[in-house]
Amino acid sequence: xxxxxxxxxxxxxxxxxxxxxxxxxxxxxxxxxxxxxxxxxxxxxxxxxxxxxxxxxxxxxxxxxxxxxxxxxxxxxxxxxxxxxxxxxxxxxxxxxxxxxxxxxxxxxxxxxxxxxxxxxxxxxxxxxxxxxxxx
Length: 136
Known about the structure:
Layout: H1 2-17, H2 32-35, E1 37-46, E2 49-50, E3 56-59, E4 64-72, E5 78-91, E6 94-98, E7 105-113, E8 117-124, E9 128-135
Antiparallel strand pairs: 1-2, 1-3, 1-9, 3-4, 4-5, 5-6, 6-7, 7-8, 8-9
């Protein structure tokens, strides 16, 4: 009888002590309906220090990225914007842009994306890590 009770307790302990912790889900995809649109620069930091960057970006639903930079011609005047453009590919939280004209590609990690906020992180070789915060 003792063996039966012991076996039952051991079996119950084994069954209930095992758990599946796969309930923790981490979203590794981006809601493209939140990504598309025009974003305005809030701040840009290169290795934690404030820097200038594109003041506006547009990400279209047909996967084209437009980055707008102010073309400062003097201390007080600006010429037409400089615009970098190219197709983008979204893979989970990585945004990869192949720039027209230059033949270069930049990969951004999307750190945060809401309907009103976009935070992009990129590594610039020889310079450091750039984190840009944009708002809609």
